[in-house]
Write a structure and sequence with these properties.
5 helices, globular, single chain, alpha+beta, eight-stranded mixed sheet, two-stranded antiparallel sheet
Length: 250
């Protein structure tokens, strides 16, 4: 197990903005081959964000064989990111995506309600089973279909630093921050809509099923109502946790 004379340092990054979506493919590809010198990134891209990618791409793209094109998405631009460093080298990361459901007008007398995005159904696998690409949508036994939630994801730790409790520290520190920064994690979702429901501390993880037990130890509980689905060829389940959100969006 690697040792270090310096403690692991965890650094947060506020939403980096749309510039991250302009990172050239050549730069992303270079992160899969540490021996290559990466091209110069756009100046608007925060160096801390590139540090997160230096963990995510080796883990998700090289190790787990997810697509490079799918690693960056629009949520990256508006998410809060946490990066763990060992001797100034990034070794683990995660992100918190602000309220991910969209606010729509509906329900009784135009009351605003919160719904998940439209479901996409995947192709059947070789045995004819439906390989959905997203969870079931709508209310479940653990989610009323209305309450806003944030998502915790892109949780990755380099193989050399696993088993040291770094991922747990990232989760606990990021959610402790979230508990007192509810306003920073609540976004209307659509302009011109008033009376947005408060974020009350509900957190969703799209957890890889192979590490479902580990997420359970982090305080997350599987929502059977969301079913199982496949992202990048990896089976996932939905898991919830609630934090005591002291600073709620109003």
């Amino acid at each position: 197990m690697p040792t270090s004379s310096n403690p692991i340092k965890i650094t947060p990054l506020s939403p980096p903005g749309p510039a991250v979506l302009s990172i050239p493919h050549s730069l992303l590809s270079s992160l899969t081959q540490p021996s290559l010198t990466p091209p110069t990134p756009p100046k608007e891209v925060p160096p801390l964000y590139l540090s997160a990618l230096r963990v995510r791409i080796p883990v998700f793209v090289t190790e787990q064989r997810c697509s490079l094109a799918g690693e960056l998405d629009a949520d990256d631009a508006r998410s809060w990111h946490w990066i763990a460093f060992d001797n100034d080298q990034p070794v683990a990361t995660l992100r918190l995506v602000p309220v991910t459901a969209e606010v729509v007008v509906g329900g009784v007398e135009g009351q605003e309600v919160v719904v998940m995005e439209k479901e996409h159904v995947g192709l059947p696998d070789e045995e004819g089973r439906d390989r959905r690409s997203e969870p079931y949508h709508g209310a479940t036994g653990m989610w009323d279909g209305r309450e806003p939630f944030i998502k915790i994801g892109r949780m990755a730790t380099l193989a050399s630093h696993r088993g040291r409790g770094i991922a747990q520290r990232l989760i606990e520190e990021s959610l402790a921050w979230a508990a007192t920064h509810g306003a920073d994690l609540s976004s209307p979702g659509s302009e011109g809509v008033d009376n947005i429901p408060q974020w009350r501390g509900l957190v969703l993880s799209h957890a890889q099923k192979s590490v479902q037990e580990w997420w359970g130890k982090m305080g997350f509980e599987v929502d059977e109502g969301l079913g199982a689905w496949w992202e990048e060829g990896i089976e996932h389940v939905g898991m919830w946790r609630r934090v005591d959100a002291a600073d709620r969006f109003r």
